[in-house]
Amino acid sequence: MILLLGRSRKQRSCLLVAFLLFFFAPPLRAGEFRQVSHYSVRLFSFGTFTMDVRTGDIQIAGWDDPHVEIEAEKVVEAGSERKALSQYQRVRILLDGRDKQVSLRTVYPPRRLWRPFRGESKLSVDFHIHMPYDANLVLKCVDGDVWVRGIIGQENLMINYGDVEVDVPSIARLQSLQAKTWLGNVQSDIHGEDSAGFRQKVLFWNPNGTQNIRVKVHMGGIYIFQFGE
Q1: Are the C-beta atoms of 102 and 43 separated by less than 8 Å?
Q2: What are the angstrom distances between the C-alpha of 80 and each of 27, 28, 29, 30?
Q3: Distance in angstroms (rounded) separating the CA atoms of residues 43 and 62
Q4: Helix %, strand %, coil % for the chain, to 5?
Q5: Among the listed residues 55, 52, 123, 128, the one whose alpha carbon sits nearest the alpha carbon of residue 89
Q6: d(CA 137, CA 151)
Q7: Is 47 exposed, middle or buried (CB count within 10 Å of its CB: 0-12, 13-18, 19+)?
Q8: Are 128 and 71 in contact (CB under 8 A)?
Q9: Which pairing describes strands 136-143 and 67-78: parallel, antiparallel, or unpaired?
Q10: Is the pLDDT of residue 20 over 90?
């Protein structure tokens, strides 16, 4: 409470303006800061690359190289670069295994029961990844958009909230595709699918194929396109 008694009219007016600005002015917008790190590990053909991450966008492309190359970009909202440095430490990126099995996961601070999601919207990790085109991919993501291109191995993608685009290298090589979203839109040029709403899906079966793709989204869109044919 600001005491205005005993002051001149001019002083009272200045204090009143300061009071109103302090309590009713819009909050200052935090700046966005980024920290990039790189990782590399060997993964052979037909091995499995597993991701278990929480928040951030993911781009994965297949290549003819027996390594997984990862660019991880931590994105935080903070009032200053100094505060951003402490925010970066709140999430860890763990990469384990090699050759036949490689796993990548992000570890956030434990959630508090009374404020389980405090600060999570201000801290995310975006990934740009190259992996062997003939390796298998298992991906779990809580909140983020996912894009996968040029993989002929098995794919199992599970996303809670976000859009997923899969560019299929070869329809002739594809044995099965099961893509389902509980709420969202679906587009595919395999059968010309284009719909939106509850429980949308794309299904495909070819007994002569070898690749199996499963996509499960809780809320978000699924986009399946032919690539390279």
Answers
A1: yes
A2: 15, 12, 11, 8
A3: 12
A4: 10, 60, 30
A5: 123
A6: 8
A7: buried
A8: yes
A9: unpaired
A10: no
pLDDT band at 162 (very low <50, low <70, confident <90, very high): very high
Structure-block tokens of residue 38: 């790189």
Show Cβ contacts of residue 102 under 8 Å, excluding neighbours closer than 6 positions: 41, 43, 47, 48, 49, 50, 68, 95, 96
Tens-place pLDDT, residues 84-111: 888 888 899 999 999 999 999 999 887 6
Tell the residue number behind the tokens 């699924």, with chain if given.
222
Q: How many CB atoms lie within 10 A of CB 10?
A: 8
In the three-class reduction of DSSP (H, G, I as helix; E, B as strand; rest coil), residue 83 is classed as: helix
Instruction: Give dist(CA 60, CA 174) in Å, integer.
Output: 19
The phi and psi torsions of 227 (rounded to 5 degrees) equal -135, 130
